[in-house]
Amino acid sequence: MPKSAPSDLQHTVPSVDPNAAEGLLAAIHLGDRIKKLRLRRSMGLVELGKKTGLSASFLSQLETGRVVPTLRNLSRIALVFDKDLSYFFENGERRIFRIQRKADRVRIPIGVPTPNYIAESFGILVPEGGLRPCMAEFTPATAAHEPDAFTPERYPGIEMVYVTSGSLEVNRKGDIHHLEPRDVLYISGTTQRSYRCHGSQPAQALIISFDAESGDLRRKPLSRPIPAA
């Protein structure tokens, strides 16, 4: 029986270079990304293991690049940190440009029946996490209402407060300080502190919380110039 001529659709599929595949995995720094997420939450390997159902030994090997996770295991880790799977494969040098209009934000009164302050979060602009910007308006005291001070939760990181209007009272472990418009406060997130309005006019301030290890907050020199976006 004569052999059939090879079809034009038939072709030789080139084999994948194992070294190239390993290089692709190394380029996304998967283990480093997981470790940074874990440390930002001050979470140990054992705790992450309990939340994901994975062993601490496996997670340690994953962070050091000795093993590669399945998509199912990576999904478990992503759910713990409220991330999409795409977060682990994004190019770290991508350009970010986001705009949020005033009309799209919600002002949330905190405190009942009379609010102690009004929060206006910009967090939707930073879905990557690690940075929480918020505009806060602190209401002044009146004859009928003495607002409670706002006492932020303590966390490993840094907090920056920029006063835009009014006078803001800062209580740092019992020491009282007053910030006026354009004054800036830079304080550890682990410090006991509270904020309230000082004076008869509302005090407004931009509060930015940075979730990070102390080492990540140090200024690092640029290894190369940043190209124009």
Question: Quick summary of this structure?
Answer:
With 229 residues, this protein is an alpha+beta fold. The protein has helices spanning 18-27, 30-40, 45-52, 56-63, 71-80; strands at 108-110, 117-121, 131-138, 157-165, 168-172, 175-179, 184-188, 193-197, 203-211.
List the helices and strands and how they pair.
Blueprint (H helix, E strand, L loop, with lengths): L17 H10 L2 H11 L4 H8 L3 H8 L7 H10 L27 E3 L6 E5 L9 E8 L18 E9 L2 E5 L2 E5 L4 E5 L4 E5 L5 E9 L18
Antiparallel strand pairs: 1-2, 2-3, 3-9, 4-7, 4-9, 5-6, 5-8
Describe what you observe in this structure.
By secondary structure, this protein is α+β, with helices and mostly antiparallel strands. Helix content is 21%, strand content 24%. The protein has helices at 18-27, 30-40, 45-52, 56-63, 71-80; strands at 108-110, 117-121, 131-138, 157-165, 168-172, 175-179, 184-188, 193-197, 203-211. β5 (168-172) and β6 (175-179) form a beta hairpin. The longest helix has 11 residues, at 30-40. The protein is elongated and about 80 Å long. The termini are far apart.
